[in-house]
Amino acid sequence: MTCQTFASLGDVMATIFGLNLFALSGQLLVGLINGSFYALLSLGLAIIFGLLKIINFAQGAMYMLGAFFAWMALNYMGINYWWALILVPIAIGLLAILMERFLVRPIANEDHLYSLLLTFGIALVLQGAFTHIYGSSGLPYQIPAELKGGTKLPFMYLPNYRAWIIVSSLVVCFSTWWVIEKTKLGAYLRAGTENPQLMQGFGINVPLITTLTFGFGVALAGFAGVLAAPVYSVSPDMGSNILIVVFAIVVIGGMGSIGGAILTGLMMGVVEGLTKFFYPEASTTVIFLFMVIVLLVKPAGLFGKEA
Amino acid sequence: MKINKLYLFLIVVALVAPSLVYPVFLMKLLCFALFACAFNLLLGFVGLLSFGHAAFLGTGGYITGYLMLETGITPELGILAGTLGAGLLGAIYGKLAVKREGIYFAMVTLALAQLAFFFYLQAPFTGGEDGLQGVPRGALFGLIDLSDNFAMYYFVLAIFIFGFWLIHRTVHSPFGQILKAIRENEPRAVSLGYNVNDYKWVAFIISSALAGLAGSTKTLVFQLASLTDVHWHMSGEVVLMTLLGGMGTIFGPLVGAGVVVSIQNLLSGGELGNYINIIMGVIFIICVLAFRSGLVGEFQKLMKKNFN
């Protein structure tokens, strides 16, 4: 540990409650970072679910694709991190629009379980293809020069890039929330969620809005993927691992509310971080256990409405 | 009468098959076919998509493997314990999962199965990444040595026929009729006074216990219980088998399991081995887009069109 480098006041305070506050705040930070990714991914799922009533099983694969696109852009085309942060989500969004138009829409009127299976198939193909080409060991992606280094705080050392992840994902999440809850475009979206037929009757192009919504929801996963590339190694199974956790988070939060999806994502990241500190053995399972408790106490989810 | 002749024919084929085809391959096929049939009881006849059935396959396998290695009990007791263990886990998971419907049900079961996966990954008695290796097959009732592949094959066949018969009986019982009513119109079943969640729960328990039976048997066949069996990939595989064969048909999962296991066997080891996941994904997409009734379902439609 680098505790020695701290001022003596910090040292005294760091163990004041018999806890190693240095390690605790470190795990809380890791929790907030994971929570940022959970929030971005579950927000994307919730937006798509609102209008299309489907769950995109390929959301994790698109997150993986985002990280790989950033890596490929840098290594094959010399496109740096900042451009990737803008271009990759757009590319992923366009890909998702094609996917919606040619694969998801033809079965839109079937049982929604079929679209779950369809997107599961797409996820298998993407993950299989990238495993085949790049192997499963993972590729490194450098932190951009502007965000190297960190800041010393009383209880911890805060690497700049980690702070950037939390800030940028919060900004994206809450602007998305603001657009949906407070603007006219968002009003269309919410109206479409309530009653698509009626909205179509008012002369609004619902299929177009549906396609764009799907594109945007998936683009959020692509954005998360680019953000994740420098902190996690870029590997084909990074998507499926996180997606199952995000599913549990979606069950915990309920998909009825956009704000709920964001808050639950962040909260579960923090819960996971705290578990890593107090009882590390349970850190991989705590979110699933939390889901079990929510199912027992409030089956519709924390922010869900009773059906 | 026609259907009885079909069953008789299939049994004769199954009896002579091991002298023509490698018995271990046939046993693998039967285990996965039983797994898929158990899964289909939920998806095809109740309309519940469980994305976590690997948890029950794996639980059956681990319990049987552990007991066979550590206590030296006879294989039929080992399998019984594995089946009961998986059924018990199914009772707990099912009680939780039936609280939600449709897509949420799929997500809940997937998350619960992942919980089981991490448990087995860390638990001291599962051998972690290595799994339980060298599980002895033992002697059936203490009399018949199962290390012989032919003896083992007929034991597996008997288990499969029992499982298949049980599912057949369940589907065609009054209980099964109510399950189908729930699948077709749940609000109506509720309005008729049925406690829908309890019916779903019982179906879930039967399905998970039979999935455990398949897992226990598979562990004896391959003398191995490993994390592969509890991984979400396995849950996806059984969905694919059922979808490809034809959900809601009696023979669909059997055919689907046959096709998927054969594809895997053909590709593994060869040049195309790396493409297995891509091919599975493509089959998924094609099935959903082009023939949702599956091989058996489409065949039945064709028969109806041409011979009625």
Automatic annotation (TrEMBL), chain B:
Its main location: membrane. InterPro entries: ABC_transp_permease, LivM-like. GO terms for cellular component: plasma membrane. Keywords: Cell membrane, Membrane, Transmembrane, Transmembrane helix. GO terms for molecular function: branched-chain amino acid transmembrane transporter activity. It is a multi-pass membrane protein. The chain crosses the membrane at residues 6-25, 32-57, 77-96, 103-121, 150-167, 238-263, 275-295. It is found in: Cell inner membrane. This is Branched-chain amino acid ABC transporter permease.
